[in-house]
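Tokens as discussed.
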């Protein structure tokens, strides 16, 4: 959070001094989440519902192990990942300590005045910022990190010319589908072998089952197999 913008609360609405990029980025992100992002008639302030902000700026270090706060974050991780994946797809890098608005039992990413558009890669990736946020609240991030590691492994073009170890190369050679694009990865805690009608690479990881796919799995199948879309 830059801290150089005028903000105030009136009744049930939060107001923040307008900047073009922040307004556009918020509208692009929350057009799918349902969080109402508006603009005052004089276009001087961005508006959104009043709620509580969860971030390292608002929660002191000695309070971040609070069970209530941690439970709110953990329950919202799937919804938070939806927003992070959308930002990455839009090519918007948040670039700051994440600020999450707790409103109607959901966490919405806000405060995007430091965000900018760029190529999302290993240098600029919102998953890293989410992992940093979760780590600061002492919340386990192994699901995200393991999924990222496996997706990167199977996106490798020539495994023999890498520094992966022999176990990793063996896994790659056993399961890889060479002609299949590796675009998405889903996670499930249950130990069932996940069966879906699309090209996929199924991996039993340390945390649970992971499925790498070329296309997005439809919501009904995601629900049936208790899947979480990580990337």
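Sequence:
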């Amino acid at each position: 959070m830059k801290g150089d913008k005028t903000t105030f609360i009136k009744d049930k609405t939060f107001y923040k001094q307008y900047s073009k990029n922040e307004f556009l980025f918020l509208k692009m992100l929350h057009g799918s989440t349902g969080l109402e992002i508006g603009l005052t008639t004089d276009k001087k302030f961005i508006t959104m519902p009043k709620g509580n902000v969860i971030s390292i700026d608002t929660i002191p270090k000695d309070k971040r192990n609070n069970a209530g706060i941690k439970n709110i974050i953990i329950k919202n991780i799937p919804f938070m990942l939806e927003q992070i994946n959308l930002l990455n797809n839009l090519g918007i890098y948040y670039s700051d300590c994440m600020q999450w608005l707790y409103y109607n039992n959901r966490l919405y990413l806000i405060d995007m005045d430091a965000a900018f558009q760029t190529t999302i890669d290993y240098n600029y990736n919102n998953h890293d910022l989410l992992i940093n946020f979760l780590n600061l609240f002492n919340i386990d991030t192994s699901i995200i990190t393991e999924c990222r590691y496996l997706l990167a492994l199977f996106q490798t073009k020539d495994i023999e010319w890498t520094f992966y170890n022999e176990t990793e190369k063996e896994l790659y050679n056993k399961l890889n589908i060479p002609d299949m694009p590796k675009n998405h990865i889903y996670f499930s805690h249950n130990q069932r072998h996940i069966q879906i009608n699309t090209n996929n690479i199924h991996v039993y990881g340390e945390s649970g089952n992971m499925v790498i796919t070329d296309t997005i799995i439809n919501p009904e199948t995601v629900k049936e197999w208790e899947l979480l879309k990580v990337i």
